[in-house]
Write a structure and sequence with these properties.
The structure holds two protein chains of two kinds. Chain A has helices at 63-70, 100-106, 121-131, 138-151, 155-158, 171-183, 201-214, 227-233, 251-256, 261-267; strands spanning 23-34, 37-48, 52-56, 80-88, 91-92, 107-110, 189-193, 219-223, 236-241, 244-250. Chain A is of the alpha/beta class. In chain B, 35% of the residues are buried. Classes of the chains: A alpha/beta, B alpha+beta.
């Protein structure tokens, strides 16, 4: 199962020429507890590089919990406890020696509700590169900001008002700004937690288009409630139910020929 | 549930929504009534509150605003060189140290000439404040070349004279004399006789008053008699007094003496003023308050009968002083001006000289100490507790105790300050430094609570966003959460400081309640603060200090409004939508 073939030095970004078929994230026997509640049960999954993997399932099934394990965002919740093993490029991210801040720079995140900083558009994107020392000079920083906005497909809309507040943008623009902010620190993995649930269909289409473009360079994991969205954007789909990973496979196979009865029931709308 | 049930006639459901029956209408009416009633309660409560506030503000402003104005006498003062600078060296020290009293007296005597009696001339000089020469002295020190000249300079009036001009004296009315009046002299005790019964009305008023006094005594005597026989002697003496009074009022022609408990009767004649001490229908005997120009007889209509409607014993100024003050007013020598002195001097035993500069400076120094201690400590404590402290029993204990501290009566902090800062550390008594320390203890819990609330109000999504791009926890807090919480923290701090501004009790405990004339210049100087100054003044008997008290309250309230206004402005300006 472990398809990771390259041993990476600590926290070295993977070479951009790595084959698209490699495994980026590996989880083995991953359990999450919120206090007494067993929220995620024994999840083992491989997530391929430079593709989009969708997590689907009814509310409270643990898909968001698992997503937040991948950049250790669950650490911020005091009662949360994680067991098992999650590796990125073969490296255990729960290794006590690993710096969680650097992990989060490698694994970017986009949240359900667009949450730009209440600062200018420029500052929103520049914040990450600045604290990580990615850009040495003002002109470097400008370059990073412009190229990130460009990659996020937002540059055309905001290039004349980079100093306006990020919170003044529309919901869809705000979400793409958050994506630009995430890719400004050149992560390898981008986690998206229901990124379109607060957006209208047109903004959703734009974000989906953007994800399709980004998958050439990034490993994207998306949690979604919309099965159409999962079917449209993802190459692989994982179905979670009641804390268990029920089934994972190619998106086409999951939606046309699921192996498990529960998956079948969910995607045909019998429950959930 | 199933298709079959569709065809079966549905039984009347047990629970049905009823919108049309009488009971339903009654329910709606009662709901509307309840809503109207609730609205009325709210409006009534608001009205009562607004009324109280309006009455309070009206009363304070009515009492306090006059104290922001002051009266002076604009007199020509001949600056005699031999009095001001006998040595003739024109040294600032000598000019400062000279006795200016003779100059003041000469200027007043020139304004109201002809005052001979010692008592009258004493009363004349008493219309001026002991601080009256201050202005003149400053002018002379600044420009010694004025010595020897006659200069027009405002001389500060005493508190009683000042209050008189502010309307706290007496009502004055007069009527023209009907007969020809003949004074018996120009000064001293004289009689004024008229050819018609000009004083019949005054005499009758006095008789009526005697009758009412007699009736009162008679009623009291009757009550005491009924209550028992043991006070027979007292009753007898009261009866005798009644008989004596009856004897007086039953003979309408008899002359009557006037005392200080009845409205004063005066005669203005030949440019002078006579105060009646005894009168009958056709004449008075009295003391000359302002000397007459001549003792010739005055034709009908050229002289006047004057009344001071408030009895002399009910006011702070004597008839003699009223006469002087009215004469000065007629001469146009009275100057009303804004009371700058109130803001530029420290406390004084003389109300007209007392100011709030000392208290304001003391307040500023004290609050500065408080702010410098409270803001950094309070904010750091709040940030640590809210963002970094582990959630365990110890932090719970700390949190509960911070909330408890916010509810501790302020006097307890004063006792703590007395025990710790004064007795243990030996810091100076009455000092703004100690006051600031004590107020810091008092305000710290408020600021911590406000700051924690402000930090909590920052949406967690902002922190998550920062963590999501790889900021450390500390970076996320200091780069994003704290700046966003800052308006709330500032608002809480200003409210806390406004609380400290109005605090009196703890400062009494550390000795900031002393009478301090000098304006403090350092954190360890003896000082007092505005609310304590108000407390001190409110205790003093002079009526002018009552008005100073209200004026100081107006200043304190102005500062409080200013601070609260600043808090509201900050909140509005930096309010964010997420």
């Amino acid at each position: 199962m472990d398809m990771s073939t390259v041993e990476h030095a600590m926290l070295t970004p993977s070479a951009t020429s790595a084959p698209a078929s490699g495994t980026k994230v590996t989880a083995r026997a991953c359990n999450v507890y919120y206090g007494e509640k067993h929220a995620l049960k024994d999840v083992s999954v491989d997530i391929p590089e430079r593709s989009i993997t969708a997590f689907i399932g009814p509310s409270g099934c643990g898909k968001s919990t698992f997503l937040r394990c991948i950049n250790r965002m669950n650490d911020t919740i005091a009662s949360c406890r994680v067991t098992g093993k999650i590796e990125i490029d073969g490296q255990d991210i729960y290794d006590p020696a690993l710096d969680v801040v650097q992990l989060r720079a490698r694994v970017g995140m986009v949240f359900q509700k667009p949450n730009p900083f209440p600062k200018s558009i420029y500052e929103n994107v520049a914040y990450g590169p600045r604290i990580h020392g990615i850009a040495k000079s003002k002109s470097d920083l400008d370059e990073v900001v412009i190229s990130s906005l460009e990659k996020a497909g937002l540059l055309k809309e905001v290039k004349d008002r980079l100093n306006d507040s990020g919170t003044g943008l529309s919901g869809g623009q705000q979400q793409r700004l958050c994506i630009a902010r995430a890719i400004a620190v050149s992560p390898e993995v981008i986690l998206m937690d229901e990124p379109c649930s607060a957006l209208d269909p047109i903004a959703t289409a734009k974000v989906e288009e953007l994800m399709d473009e980004l998958k050439a360079n990034y490993t994207i994991i998306i949690v979604t409630h919309s099965m159409q969205q999962a079917a449209r954007v993802s190459q692989r789909t994982a179905f979670f139910h009641l804390g268990n990973l029920v089934e994972v496979g190619d998106t086409r196979q999951i939606f046309t020929n699921p192996k498990e009865q529960r998956t079948q029931d969910y995607i045909t709308g019998r429950f959930g | 549930m199933t298709d079959i049930s569709m065809d079966i006639a549905r039984p009347e459901p047990k629970f049905r929504l009823d919108l049309t029956s009488d009971a339903a209408r009654a329910r709606i009416r009662s709901r509307y009534r309840a809503e109207t009633r609730f609205k009325a309660y709210g409006i009534a409560a608001l009205t009562v509150t607004a009324l109280f506030l309006a009455v309070l503000m009206f009363d304070i402003l009515r009492n306090g605003l006059p104290a922001f104005w002051q009266h002076s006498l604009l007199l020509d003062v001949p600056v005699a060189a031999d009095i001001v600078d006998p040595a003739g060296k024109r040294e600032a020290g000598a000019i400062k140290g000279a006795d200016y009293f003779p100059l003041m007296r000469n200027a007043l005597n020139a304004a109201i000439p002809g005052i001979e009696s010692r008592s009258a001339s004493k009363q004349l000089t008493r219309v001026l404040s002991v601080g009256a020469p201050d202005r003149l002295r400053d002018m002379l020190v600044a420009d010694p070349s004025l010595i020897g000249k006659t200069i027009k300079v405002p001389l500060l009036l005493s508190d009683d004279a000042d209050l008189y001009y502010k309307g706290a004296g007496t009502g004055i009315d007069d009527r023209a004399g009907r007969g020809t009046a003949t004074p018996s002299g120009r000064t001293g005790e004289i009689t004024v006789l008229t050819s018609s019964n000009d004083f019949a009305e005054e005499l009758q008023n006095i008789k009526l008053r005697l009758k009412s006094v007699a009736d009162t005594i008679s009623r009291d005597a009757g009550r005491i008699e009924r209550s028992g026989p043991d006070q027979a002697q007292r009753v007898a003496s009261m009866r005798a007094e009644v008989a004596n009074l009856a004897n007086r009022y039953q003979q309408p022609g008899n002359a009557e003496a006037l005392d200080s408990k009845v409205p004063s009767v005066l005669v203005a004649i030949n440019g002078g003023l006579v105060k009646a001490t005894r009168l009958d229908a056709s004449g008075i005997t009295g003391d000359v308050l302002l000397p007459l120009k001549s003792a010739e007889e005055a034709k009908p209509g050229t002289w006047k009968v004057v009344h001071y409607s408030t009895p002399e014993s009910d006011r702070k100024v004597t008839d003699q002083e009223v006469a002087f003050l009215e004469r000065l007013r007629e001469a146009g020598a009275v100057d009303r001006h804004f009371n700058w002195r109130f803001f530029t001097t420290g406390d004084s035993r003389e109300p007209e000289l007392a100011g709030i500069r000392g208290a304001l400076t003391g307040t500023a120094l004290t609050l500065l100490v408080t702010l410098l201690l409270c803001l950094p400590i309070g904010v750091m404590a709040a940030v640590y507790l809210e963002e970094f402290a582990p959630k365990n029993r110890w932090t719970d204990v700390v949190e509960v105790n911070i909330n408890n501290l916010a509810a501790v009566p302020s006097i307890v902090f004063g006792l703590l300050g007395l025990a710790v800062f004064l007795n243990f550390f030996g810091l100076p008594r009455s000092a703004p430094l100690v006051g600031g320390l004590v107020l810091a203890l008092l305000v710290l819990p408020t600021i911590i609570i406000a700051a924690r609330a402000a930090l909590k109000a920052v949406p967690p999504s902002i922190k998550e966003a920062a963590l999501g791009v790889g900021a450390s926890h500390q970076q996320a807090v200091f780069h994003h959460v704290l700046p966003l919480a800052m308006p709330g923290i500032m608002t809480g701090t200003i409210i806390g400081m406004a609380h400290a501004l109005g605090e009196t009790a703890p400062l009494l405990m550390i000795g900031m309640v002393a009478f301090i004339v000098d304006v403090p210049t350092a954190f360890t100087d003896a000082a007092t603060v505005l609310p304590v100054q108000i407390y001190l003044w409110s205790d003093l008997p002079e009526p002018a200090f009552q008005s100073k008290t209200a004026a100081a309250i107006v200043v304190l309230l102005a500062f409080l409004f200013l601070m609260n206004g600043a808090a509201i402005w900050l909140r509005k300006k930096f309010e964010r939508r997420w």
